[in-house]
Every structure is written in C-alpha cells, then in structure tokens.
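Hi Y.,

Following your request, here is the sequence exactly as I used it, all 665 residues.
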Amino acid sequence: MTERKVGVFICHCGGNISDVVDVKAVREDAAKREDVVLATDFRFMCSNEGQERLQKEIRDRGLDGVVVACCTPKMYEDLFRGQAGEAGMNPYLLEIANIREQCSYAHRHEPAKATEKAKLLVGAQVEKVRRLRPLDVKTAAIQPGVAVIGGGIAGIHASILLGSLGHKVTLIEKSPTIGGNMARTVKTFPTDDCAMCTLSPKMNEAYNHPNVDLLTYAEVVDARRSPGKFTLTVEKKPRYVTDACIGCNRCTEKCPISTAKSPIQVDSEWDAGLQRRKAIYLPFPQALPQLWTIDADHCFYFQRDGACRICAKVCPANAIDYTMKPERVDIEVGAVIVATGFREYDPTPLRHLAYGRHPNVVTQMQAARMLDSMGPTHGSVARPSDGKPADTIVMVQCVGSRGAPGDPSVHEYCSRVCCMVAVKHAQLIKKARPDTEVYILYNDLRAYGKGFEEYYAHSMELGVKYVRGLPGSVRPQGEKLLVDVDDMLTGRRLRIPADLVVLSAALEPSPVDDLLAALHLDKTPDGFVKEYHAKINPTETQVKGVFVAGCAQGPKDITDTIAQAGAAAMSAAVFLGSGEMTLNPLIAEIDPALCRACDRCTEVCEFDAVHVDPGRLLAVVDETACEGCGKCTVVCPTGAITVRQFKRPQIVASIDALAPLAVAP
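Below is the corresponding structure, written out as tokens. Let me know if you'd prefer a different format.
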C-alpha cells in the first residue's frame, strides 16, 4: 500500500463534542496512527476560520487524505469535500468521523466511554482513508424547466416564483382545478381573512403567467431520470368538455344525476360530501380553468350505453365531446417540486366517536364547508340530519393524531393545525350566533404560532368552553348526541348533549406512493416525503433535483406552507441556475472477471441503474442513475459488483480498527 499523508481535524462543535469527549485524548491517539502526519483540533471546523485552516494544512503539508471528526456527514461532508477540492486534494479522499451524534450525544453521561468510542471511529476512518483512491468528478448539463406536482397553495406559490425568475414551469394537478385544500377552508387563522380572497388572486396569477403551463385533471404516471433531466409521463384525463366551453352552466342545471329521482347520487368533493353534485360540474365558482368536467363514472351516457345526451343538447357552444380519450404526454424538466398536499383522515374506524354511523358527527373540513356562505348550508352550522341550526356543538381534538404507538387505525404524530382550526371555527360560530354553546375537548392545546395564543384567548372571551379530556363515547339520545368526557382539570365526568359533534381529524399524506416510487423518493414512517435533512435541507430530497414543499413533507399551516414553497422554489432555481450538476462518483462498478451475468443486481436496483448487456454477458452500471446505495453488492454471489470507496479492503480495515480485539488472528 502506498504511503499516504493523512491529516486528522477534530471539531469541538462549540462544546457539543468537547464537553463530553476528551478531544485532546482523541487527537493524541490519532497522531499515533500510521500515515497520520497531522492531528489537530479546533472549536468550529465548519466556520470560515476552520475551513481556511483545513485548506492551509492541505496545501502546506501536501495532504492526500483527510479525516474530519465532527457531526453527521449529512450536514457538512459536501462542504468539507468542496474545501478540500479547492485546496488541490481530490475531494473523495476525505471522510467524516461522526463523533457528535455517535459519541457525545449518544453517551453524554459516559464521557470516558464516549472518548474511547471516538478514538475507534477516528481510527477506523484513518484506516479507510489510507486505502481510498482518487475519483474523477463528472458533471452533466441540467435540462431547463421545472415540473411542480400539486396545484394547492404550495404548488401555486412555487410556480409563480419560478416563473417570475424566468423558468418555464409545468404545474400538474390531478383534480379539474387548482386551489387545493385551502380553497375549502373559508377563513384563515389567526386573522380570519377570507381564504378564497387570498387564494383566488394567486390562482389567477398562476393561470395567466406566461411562464406557467397548467395541466389540470392530469397525473404523473411515470418518471425517468437521466443526467440532469427528468422525463415525466403525464396522463391527461378526458373532461369530455372542450375549450369551447363558455361557462353558461346550462349542462349542470339540466343534468339528471343527483336529482331527487335519480338512481345515481354523487357526493360533492368540494363540499366534503355534505351535498350532491351533478355528473357534469365545475368544482366551485372560482375554479381555474373555468372548464366543466364530465364524471364518466357517474354519467348516464357512459354508464348506460349513451342513454343520455342532455348536456350535449343544451350546450350552446357545442363543447361536449363524448369521444375524448386519455392522452399521455412526456415532459422533460431539470427539476421537480413535489407539493402533493394532504387529505383529511377518515375517522370511521374510531367507532366510539360514531363518525359514519350518525349524520350529525362531522369533521372540521365539513364544518368549514358549512361556514361558507356558498356552501351546503349557506353559512349556517346545521345538523345534517334535519338541517336545523346546531345550538350545542362539541369539537373533539386529536382524532386520528397522537395515537398509541402500534395502533394501525391512528397516527402517532401531531397534525399541528387541528387545535387552531377548532379555535377558528368556534370563534366564527360564536360571532355569527353568540347564543350557540361551543365546547372544545382537548388533550393538549397547541397555540404555537405568531398571534395564536392571543387568538385562543379571544375565543375564551367569546364564550368558547374548553374541557381537558377526550370523549369515551358519542351516542344518540333522542335528537341529541350524548358526549361522555372526563374533565381532567376538575375530576368531574361530563355528559354533554350536543346537536353536532365536530371531529378535528388528522392530516394524512396524499395517496401518492406510485409517484414517490417513480421518483425514487423515501417516505418517513408517517408516510410523508422524507426531506434530505430536517434542519439544514428541509426542501431537498435524497434525489438531486427533486424538492418538496407544503404538507407533502408534513402537516403545516398555510403560513408555513407558503414559506416552505418559497424556499423550495429558490432551491430549485439555484439548482437550475448553475446550468450543470455534479454526478455522484460514489457508485457501483463491475469487475468483468467476476461477473457471471446472473441479473440479481438488476432485480434489486431501485434506480434502474444496472442491467445485463446480453451481447457481452456482463452487468453494466449507468453512472448517471446509480445512487451508490450498495444493495446490489449484497446480493452479488461472486463479489463482482462493489461501490467505489467501499471496497472490501477499505471496509475490512475499518472493522479491524473498530474492534481490534475481536479480529481473528
């Protein structure tokens, strides 16, 4: 093995490491390692001074290997490699020894053991670095353009920003209109601004923006990646209504579906199932584009062999076209923003709350639709069973959220917005009808944002009653619903006769598993899109060029959604603005002498990055697609496929250094 000049740089991390780990002892141990010509420590290696010091030592001492003992490589590995490259050393001769998360954080109360572990981790990385080889850094041109998937407020805001920066944007929305869930929320907390008054101008701006191409009633069905480019296959579903539509609404007025005598009744998605819609419809008055859509699954023409053509007969613009077919188009872009939003949890499995079994138990989204003056009850919060105004309303928090670990019917996470949604609706109800009794049954009330605490306090001034405790049961009693709850603050059991029970249901990730799989994106245990790093890269994903925004990444309110959408847009703009991307050199490679073309590597590769060349009977790695995950190396029966910088000698040397007493002679 060629003699190397290795430098070890140990970071104090401002005390996060040095308050637990004896940095001096780690430094002295590292200095004794073979080929180590420098072992030093510094208070903040990530600071400008720390980076300058790293570069100076590389230049002055001619280092051809570096170990930085600091925090997780997710945070600063790229930074340190970049600095090493600028100093003249191959960036891939640098490794991180994580002595913060794996030592000082994990063993805070055992400093001696933490120090010994840090010595071993640094030693293992020194042994690995001694065996590393320089890697070539390759780049690829980035395709212009961005695809934004999801037409809610996050997708709309990101599209407008990117379009205004001169990027061509394709905004893809699966429903017939953009607007998303925000369009249904009526008011926004904590200011009680009209949601549609805030959203509608942004919808119009996106719709009319010269750099934004809108694809509604369309879904991404496949995604392929090549150097600097994503090719998305988008299926445009047929509306059966052409662009000649003038929006006269005659078709909807005459459509027989969902009328009193119709055998087909269709729940309105816009009104959360509280009223019916026709088979040909516009989701809501401000919908964009202003194009009606025929729901073929519930239309007499499609379901009864052309038995009904009323919409075509009454259309003055001849805009009805029953022959439309699904159309697939390929879109080539350099970046993708996933802004697929959320859906409301279905509380039906929680039988003690009677949702789905009693019409007067609704969700907060349904309550929001009632509060809309253009909604199913024209702004009056009423009992769905008979339409009478609800005089006593009980709101139940944490429905489907903060559940017991391991319970598949609920989620462990907090949905963040539910408390303030309940406070908002309670206030709106009390302002409209002060005599209405409103109870909020809660576990912990979380008023965490700007102005939220004052908003919550104001609701109490209006007479909203808060009971700390969640109901054991909701059951009918005459025309009322009897809500049983133990008040944890007073120790009393309450039985509240309610006209309406409103459940603050959890926010769930939209069902987009196929999309995430096509883009090779990971999910968190909760099912949301996993960001690259929750603190320093909250809008990036592990796939270069793919970004995430809004509730696709996790539950959040409108303010945070817009903020993250703006950050995602800027991240995408920076990525595209560079014009080229650095390809990951830490990828799989094949030893032709050992490969027997068994195809097992192809079967397990999630990135379609390896295939067998039938002419040469040899596995071939696509360097632009491989992510270096190493799954192929595990299944290879001959050891023919390995990941660069993770060869057997490098791994074995690291293991030997980590457990010197456990290695067989």
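The chain is about 30% helix and 25% strand.

Thanks again,
Q.
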